[in-house]
UniProtKB/TrEMBL annotation:
InterPro entries: FRMsr_CS, GAF, GAF-like_dom_sf, Phosphatase_reg/MetRdx. It comes from Roseateles violae. This is GAF domain-containing protein. Belongs to the free Met sulfoxide reductase family. Residues 36-154 form the GAF domain. Signal peptide: none annotated. SUPFAM superfamilies: GAF domain-like (SSF55781). Pfam families: GAF_2. The lineage of its organism: Bacteria, Pseudomonadati, Pseudomonadota, Betaproteobacteria, Burkholderiales.
């Protein structure tokens, strides 16, 4: 697990994760394989997570996310853009940083152990393709440094992947 005990340690951890992501994705451009590898890297490297994964825009139903590659307990399969933290991220295409998920109106409790959440939009060529969702059993686990770190990581994923 990476050391994220201070702002400096966190910056160094995210820089290392970017290097690791580039290495894991090197030579492979398949979108599904890369999302799966990316999720495994994050889940097994970042401390205090109980879920990490993607919800992808459903090509068959407008304004709905469908479960993609993830690590953690079983999860909700479909999320409307109008529901929960992931839906809010998809709807606004803005990072959602929630210190206490129980205080978030309309929060979807897939795992009752989750206390805080960070959700980032996955945008490719100006188009929303999905969201990357991170849950933690710790309240206020995520902060603006985490959001910036994961935005940079997602950039590595987007540029290293061929999208359908």
């Amino acid at each position: 697990m990476l050391d994220m005990s201070s702002p400096q340690a966190k910056r160094e951890a995210y820089a290392l994760l970017q290097k690791q992501a580039r290495a894991v994705l090197h030579g492979e451009r398949d979108w599904l394989a890369n999302l799966a590898q990316f999720t495994a890297l994050v889940f097994n490297s970042v401390p205090d997570l109980n879920w990490a994964g993607f919800y992808l825009v459903n090509a068959r139903k407008e304004r709905e996310l469908v479960l993609g590659p993830f690590q953690g307990k079983v999860a909700c399969v479909r999320i409307a853009f109008e529901r929960g933290v992931c839906g809010a991220c998809a709807r606004t295409q803005q990072v959602q940083l929630v210190e206490d998920v129980h205080a978030f109106p309309g929060h979807i409790a897939c795992d009752s152990a989750s206390r805080s959440e960070l959700v980032l939009p996955l945008i490719v060529d100006g188009r929303l393709r999905g969201v990357f969702d991170l849950d933690s059993p710790l309240p206020a686990r995520f902060d603006a440094d985490d959001a910036r770190g994961f935005e940079a990581l997602l950039s590595v994923l987007v540029t290293g992947t061929d999208w359908p």
